[in-house]
Amino acid sequence: MHSLSSWVLGILGIGAAVCQAAVTTVSVSATASHAIPTTLFGQMFEDINSGDGGLYAEMLQNRAFQQVTPGTSDALDFWSAIAGANIAVIADPKPVSDALPNSLQVSVPGKSTTAGFANSGFWGINVNSSWTYTASFYYKFPTSSSQSVKFTVELRSASGKTLASSATTASGTATTWKQVQLTLKPTTSAPDVNNQFVVLVQPSGSATTTVDFAMFSLFPPTFKGRSNGMRMDIAETLVEMGPKFFRFPGGNNLEVRPSCRGQTTATRWQWNATVGSLLDRPGRVGDWGYVNTDGLGLLEYLQFFEDADMEPIMAVWSGYSLGGTSLPENELAPYIQQSIDQACYDLCCSASGHLSLYALDQLHYSRSSQGYRSPGALRASLGHPEPFTLNYVEIGNEDFFAADTYPYRFQDFVGNLSKAFPQLTFIATSDVGDPTLTPTPQAYDVHVYQTPGWFAQNVFSYDSFARDGQKYFEGEYAAISTNANDLFGTPSDGRLTFPTMQSSSGEAAFMTGLERNSDIVFAASYAPLLQHVNSTQWTPDLVSFDAGSVVRSTSFYTQKLFATNQGDEFMPSTLPNQNGTVFWSISRLTSTLEVIIKIANSGNSSAQLAFALPFSDVASSGTLQLLTGAETASNTPEAPNTVVPKTSTITTGKTIDYTAPAFSVSIIRVVAS
Ligand SMILES: *[C@@H]1O[C@H](CO)[C@@H](O)[C@H](O)[C@H]1NC(C)=O
Ligand SMILES: *[C@@H]1O[C@H](CO)[C@@H](O)[C@H](O)[C@H]1NC(C)=O
Ligand SMILES: *[C@@H]1O[C@H](CO)[C@@H](O)[C@H](O)[C@H]1NC(C)=O
Ligand SMILES: *[C@@H]1O[C@H](CO)[C@@H](O)[C@H](O)[C@H]1NC(C)=O
Ligand SMILES: *[C@@H]1O[C@H](CO)[C@@H](O)[C@H](O)[C@H]1NC(C)=O
Ligand SMILES: *[C@@H]1O[C@H](CO)[C@@H](O)[C@H](O)[C@H]1NC(C)=O
């Protein structure tokens, strides 16, 4: 039995009788109660206008005409013709690849020097003169007559000013696809992101000339210089938060689009459609209603986790479609096999010996023997022979929406996956304990979107959970409205547009409870992580961005303060008043002999606290990191630095007196032994 609930010294309230402002004395235990898992604070990610056009650094939108219908207006989204060119998306009889059946067909008058087409990016293109961009596309001539065409690729401002330019000439009878790759070095930075990517098509002859194009791409330098990698400023912001894990690829976006409900499972996220050449990735209409390029695929994710020093919590699709349709048990086998392959891609050695896994499955999934490689061998062929780290696999997403079918789905997925990978921890996504699942889940993913007040009132929610080996992942949480009746309306109905100091300090209060209960809570992540301010489907979000800038919210700084001030042992202390607004959590970093005190004041008045430390030798000064601001203060694109943490030196000793301001998150670090 865990000692936490019995470790109550009571609130001494020294001074309460003496003066108006009561000082709460917090006595800290000399004995740690438990080790704090290193995975405790991390990030939850899915593409909700945040992978394509966000974390994934590709700058062109609708770059390969994936999943669009030629002839519809959507097909040409984000593309426009320039100066007399005719452009159309066609179902190409000779496409660049099976996965990319559509091409952009462009006709220009002979000898034209100005005709071409443009892409407007993800609501803009960031043109930075300190960067060298990589631009590429495929082209072919639809007729076999000999041609000579100059392609000029430019970055242009909205007013038509050329900021970067590079050219190449294609000649001959190229009826098969050829790739052009050019670098672009802007002569000057653009004052805003209102820029375009332009391709000019200049035939040398006088006849009208037609060229087919496919799979365009424009990349700036990426995080850690990975090709097909992550956008530098966004990736650096995510890393700055100090995440230890990354939940992916969803979220709802793991699942089947509601409009496809009951008809097909083809639109689910499929790992194998996201690996290998970009030409082999068909893309999918994701759950949030737009096309995912799948350029940010399984390998790109896994490499990012290595580069960012965090580990995955990876979800597999478990047979449920949003809107209420579940596959019957006798149709699950191929999807279970695909989930084994997905985990194998991360974990298996490249040796073919791992193929014997499939024999173990006793599943009647027929796979074309032609060209089949074990997922581990496939990964090795793509440049990563060593397995990746993978410890946690989540079975579905929010299966409390399909509680009636989850028992057989959970049982069959976990049964087969654990036979293949007994070392993994599997996470259930239904409500804790309801329905009863077999095998008993090793862990549950719990989600909560609520008011700031709810979070402050539920700081003790995990204290009463049994200590029976089951673990918990607070996989999605955020204070999203101050009005309980408006939690799931649109922002104008009462949802917060951006986190506020009130919402963030409420979350911080809750997080002190997560840390106190980190003997059973092994991971926690705010959601959603990223928001493109020009295409938003959910607010508030942890980090906002547009094509050129990033905004760190007050909740981002709250997460950062918790994640980057992580002790390795939890030190019990006088428990806060469950019905109050001031909460704390104390840990010890044994490597530096520091005591780390986290204080969340989610109320509208300051609170005086006195921390009595159980050490004889306490440094006379420590550091304070303080995030505080007005109740409704937010960081926004217009005012991104309204509330930022401030670091200062404070006087410390065996007793540390501290006044926590209203709506604040405070971290005190002091060396003591
Ligand atoms: C993107 O959003 C910003 C901030 O709201 C706005 O100023 C800008 O005009 C928007 N850009 C586009 C292309 O809609
Ligand atoms: C331009 O690039 C430099 C170097 O990577 C970077 O420091 C700067 O923030 C960038 N500016 C913008 C507006 O992205
Ligand atoms: C991915 O694998 C599934 C079988 O697990 C198969 O049906 C599908 O066609 C594959 N998709 C791609 C793009 O390879
Ligand atoms: C594997 O999945 C199949 C198909 O759903 C199921 O019949 C079988 O019982 C599962 N095996 C285990 C060990 O759970
Ligand atoms: C907190 O309030 C609840 C009623 O809302 C009450 O039952 C409980 O005793 C209170 N706890 C404390 C510690 O005051
Ligand atoms: C301060 O918060 C309390 C509840 O904690 C509330 O009753 C009071 O109205 C608030 N005062 C102001 C000025 O907002």
From TrEMBL:
Its EC number is 3.2.1.55. GO terms for biological process: arabinan catabolic process; L-arabinose metabolic process. Pathway: Glycan metabolism; L-arabinan degradation. Keywords: Glycoprotein, Hydrolase, Signal. It catalyses: Hydrolysis of terminal non-reducing alpha-L-arabinofuranoside residues in alpha-L-arabinosides. SUPFAM superfamilies: (Trans)glycosidases, Galactose-binding domain-like. The keyword Ligase does not apply. Residues 497-664 form the Alpha-L-arabinofuranosidase C-terminal domain. The keyword Transcription regulation does not apply. Pfam families: Alpha-L-AF_C, ASD1_dom, CBM_4_9. It is an enzyme of class 3 (hydrolase). It comes from the Eukaryota. Residues 1-21 form the signal peptide. Belongs to the glycosyl hydrolase 51 family. PANTHER family: ALPHA-L-ARABINOFURANOSIDASE 1. This is non-reducing end alpha-L-arabinofuranosidase. It comes from Phanerochaete carnosa (strain HHB-10118-sp).
